[in-house]
Amino acid sequence: MPKKLIKVGIVGVGNCFAGLAQGIEFYRQNPAKKVIGLMHRQVGPYDFKDIEFVSAFDVGANKIGRTLDKAVYAEPNLVNWVKLGPSKIRVREAPILDGVGIYVLNKIKPLKKSTAPEKLREKIIKEIKNTDTEILVNYLPVGSQKATEFWAEVALETKCAFINCIPVFIASNPGWEKRFKEAGVPIIGDDIKGQIGATIVHRVLARLCDERGSVIDKTYQLNVGGNTDFLNMREMERLKSKKISKTQSVISQIKKDIKADRIYIGPSDFIPFLGNTKLAFIRVEGRMFAEIPYSLELRLEVDDKANSAGIVIDAIRLARLALDRKQGGYLEVSSYLMKHPPRQKTDDEARQIVEDFIRKKNYGQSI
């Protein structure tokens, strides 16, 4: 009997999804290559190649109505690693709500006459049911509070597991967490970590300094990039939750509090020619034995869209395990996958939670 595929719906057919879809296709086209960037080749019974994208939703006029294999290369997407095979899945219209910021409006180019959200809701739910979508991955732009809440409601109504890759607080909001638990719907969130991203590196450095007995007096993390994600984040009003997410992720690894005016973590600027390249500049200043000062600086350069794709593949397969086990509500594996889970763990603790979950060892809700 053939193994059942994991049927995934995508909210936002942008650069992040392009990196996810083309990364999977890269390994399909190169079966001799060792797969890197995943926790395990197999998570339970599931290989990464068992992921099937069966529905997709976007607001861009140049993406809506096109098949997924064409829409993934449409502007303003920059990822062009491999050519996807033909797809029958067509991108459907999503509600705009607060999903398009003022700086990216001319890049995304939404429909001039968009359908009312309530009417779209009916069509979206019908599409999800017709395609047997069982997991929704939220790839909306930073600052899309109302739009993300719309999709969280859709996930609850359709009983789709919800993976919230952006820093809008759903899984980490007690009200939403309770609703997903009562509905028996799995949720993983919030704000996806990179494989080797600025925040995970900053967390590890901060914890190293703390565990070695030093005192951290000041620290910052400055990030620049050239894709629509960074352009969108030039709108400071959309950045509040992003800065909270990244800052709390780092602070949670330090025993002694740092004054608010002594820590700065967040996106800093948009440099168009960088494209999908992200540059992070991290600095830590502190004191060691005899109050002698020290400082360290690190420069990280990564492809911003390759960085999270493997983490999302793990999240999808873990969400599917929860569905198989009929386990709803917030999944503690989020502490390994996400920057802003409800309960922060050290990275070692968080990884062990995932390993235990995969092996069915104490995989229930933990407090």
Strand order of the biggest β-sheet: 5-4-1-6-7-8-13
CATH architecture of the largest domain: 3-Layer(aba) Sandwich
What number is the mean pLDDT? 95
CATH fold-level name of the largest domain: Rossmann fold
Enumerate how many helices there are, as a single number. 12
Query: How many independent structural domains?
Result: 2
Major beta sheet summary: 7 strands, parallel
The CATH first-level class of the largest domain comes to Alpha Beta
Query: What overall form do the CA principal axes indicate?
Result: globular
Distance between the termini: 38 Å
As a percent range, the share of strand residues is: 15-25%
Gyration radius over CA? 20 Å
Low-confidence blocks of residues: 363-367
Give the tally of β-strands: 13
Helix content: 25-40%
The SS-based structural class is alpha/beta
Task: Provide an overview of this structure.
The model is unreliable at 363-367 (pLDDT under 50). This protein folds into two domains: 6-193 and 306-358, Rossmann fold, CATH 3.40.50.720; 198-303, Dihydrodipicolinate Reductase, domain 2, CATH 3.30.360.10. The protein has 367 residues and is α/β, with parallel strands linked by helices. Helix 1 packs across helix 10 (306-324) and helix 7 runs parallel beside helix 9 (240-251). Helix 6 links the parallel strand 7 (161-164) and strand 8. It has a seven-stranded parallel β-sheet with strand order 5-4-1-6-7-8-13, sandwiched between helices. Helices cover 35% and strands 20% of the residues. The protein has helices at residues 15-29, 68-71, 105-108, 117-130, 145-158, 174-183, 198-211, 228-232, 240-251, 306-324, 334-337, 347-358; strands at 6-11, 42-43, 46-47, 51-58, 91-93, 135-138, 161-164, 186-188, 215-225, 263-270, 277-287, 293-303, 329-330.
